[in-house]
Amino acid sequence: MAIQNPPVSQTRSFSTVFLIEMWERFGFYGMQVLMVTYMIKKLGFVDTRSNLVWGAAAALIYVTPAIGGWVGDKLIGTRRTMRMGAIVLMLGYALLWIPTESASFLYFSLGVIIVGNGMFKPNAGNLVRKIYEGDDTKIDSAFTIYYMAVNIGSTISMLLTPWIRDYVGQRYGDDWGWHTAFGACAVGLALGLINYALMSRTLAHIGSPADDKRVDLKKLAGVLGAGVVLVFVSAFILQNEAVARVCVYAAGVVILGIFIHLIRSSHRDERAGLSAALVLTVQTIFFFIFYQQMSTSLNLFAQKNVNLDFSLFGWHIFTWIPEQFQSLNAIWIVALSPVLVLIYNSLGRVGKDISVAAKFAWGFGAVAAGFFIYGVGARWAVDGQVSSWIMVWGYGLYSLGELLVSGLGLAMIARYVPARMGGFMMGAYYVASGISQYLGSVVANYAHIPEGLTDPVKSLDIYTSLFNKLGLVGVGCTVIAVAVLPLMNRLSASHSDVATNHDPLPASRSEEGYDTPAP
User: Fold this and answer.
1) Do 514 and 147 form a contact (C-beta atoms < 8 A)?
2) CA–CA dist 37, 45 (Å, integer)
3) pLDDT band at residue 508, thresholds of 50, 70 and 90?
4) Distance of alpha carbon 84 from alpha carbon 316, whole angstroms
5) Distance between CA atoms of residues 286 and 375, nearest Å
6) Which parts of this chain are annotated as the region Disordered (predicted)?
7) How many beta carbons lie within 10 A of that of residue 461, not counting itself?
């Protein structure tokens, strides 16, 4: 809740949230980049099991923010919930620091991380929105900078934690290498919390109404108790594949049913916007299936079938660790975001804005091309290994697709959904995204490498077969997106007419600033 004449500048308040978010993303992506290979190499999981465990964790990570945002707004306050979430996340990473190879302990640690993430993510983004509430001239720039912070933190950690694992492992043993790398995530978040404590007064005037009241101990106890229960529920889901599958598919049926019910029961003037939102949400789900390949099939592909040396014109530049290739996504996002913002603004000035539906079509085309690049690169593979530059360009196209599809997902909800349903539909969008994360892991398992197969030429065929099929699916998504463009334009025009001739919808901003570049 912003008040007039705040005691500190917007920039200083923003910097406080910016820095804690950067450190939080440092911890999260530093953990994510190692998790699938950790389960395979240290816990002895087969690739299919590790993919599905991480897919279930990713699904829960996307679902819990819908709960955490409500807790911050209604129960204990946005600032308090964000800080509590950061502390819980730090504890989750610290648990991974403990040198044990117990699968049950891993599930419990991931459960703690899931709960902490759900408390932190939505409330950090909400604070940025509240800092610039009513100041439309600055909020887009603020979210763009905020988005860059996410990718700066994640880039550094995705490059650093694999290096820490190898460096410490070579000197003190493999066990300490893995767990020290996870510990670095906890240390990073501890630094972020210390910095936040020093700067927290800059946010004293920002937050939800609950932040301005003394802590209700009963509500706080209820939140903590529910959090502990959710940790164990999450751990149970992660270690039971059948339960995870039932939860995911049931959630999909519920979300679809809710959309259909809302469209049928809403006012006639609202149906066009809701129908457009449904079509674009389904397309977004398909995108996240592609997205989940980064930490699963593409990660394992880099382990077995990518030449780790970067050379240019015969000169050796550097050598990467396989997991570090995942940082290419964040690097490309940082590079491409300002370019797209410039293009959008330039087209807007001449009245030639690209519709959200058209951007989705372009995005799927980019993703399809990215996956085909891996297949093409395999034609010039040497002893079953493709050039590291193939990964660079594949990730580049893939990241462009992310900006055009995923980056506009919540902006689409804000644009097409009636304001009275906005909060609920934002939560439904998160749940739908979580479902597709799990489905992405199911898809990644089509590139299962049989136990004992060590020939890189054969594993190359298995991985590129999956990537080529994903490229074909991407082409299919592009064709469908182009085919429905006339329908989407009609729905959008109908929705726009209603908004113009009736009470306009209030301005709404993305709740996922960490994952949404400013349009």
Assistant:
1) yes
2) 9
3) very low
4) 46
5) 20
6) 499-519
7) 13
Question: Which whole number is the average pLDDT over 41-45?
Answer: 94
Between CA 23 and CA 152 the distance in angstroms is 10
DSSP conformation letters of 43-58: S---HHHHHHHHHHHH
Q: Do 58 and 437 contact (CB within 8 A), yes or no?
A: yes
- Rounded to the nearest 10 degrees, the angle between the axes of helix 456-483 and helix 356-377 is 160
- pLDDT for the residue numbered 4: 44
Residue 418 DSSP one-character state: -
SS3 assignment, position 315:
strand
CB 375 within 8 A of CB 474: no
Q: Taking a C-beta distance cutoff of 8 angstroms, is the pair 200, 17 a contact?
A: no
Phi-psi region of 103 (alpha: psi -120 to 50; beta: other; left: phi over 0): alpha
- DSSP-assigned beta bridge partners for residue 312: 315
Can you say how many angstroms the Cα of residue 22 is from the centroid of all Cα atoms in its chain?
A: 14
What pLDDT digit, counting tens, does each position of 323-373 carry? Answer: 999 999 999 988 888 888 788 778 878 877 777 778 888 999 999 999 999
As beta bridge partners, residue 385 has 382
Burial class (CB in 10 A: 0-12, 13-18, 19+), 392: middle
**What whole-number distance in Å separates Cα of residue 163 and Cα of residue 181?**
8
- Cα separation, 288 vs 438, in Å, equals 9
- Cα-Cα-Cα-Cα torsion 124, 127, 132, 134, nearest 10 degrees, comes to 130
Asked if 309 contacts 471 with a C-beta cutoff of 8 angstroms, the reply is no
Radius of gyration of the chain (CA): 22
pLDDT in tens, 60-113: 998 888 788 888 878 888 888 889 999 999 999 999 999 998 999 999 999 999
Kindly state the tokens that stand for 159: 């490059």
DSSP run (H or E) holding 21: helix 10-41
State in Å, rounded, how far the first CA of the chain is from the last one. Answer: 24
User: Rounded CA gap, 177 and 154, in Å?
Assistant: 20
**Residue type (1 letter), 366:** A
Go through the chain and tell me how many residues it has.
519
Task: Assign 3-class secondary structure to 362-379.
Answer: HHHHHHHHHHHHHHHHHH
Residue 317 host element (H or E): strand 315-319
C-alpha distance from residue 315 to each of 261, 302, 311, 390 (Å): 61, 22, 5, 17
Strand 315-319, strand 309-312: pairing: antiparallel
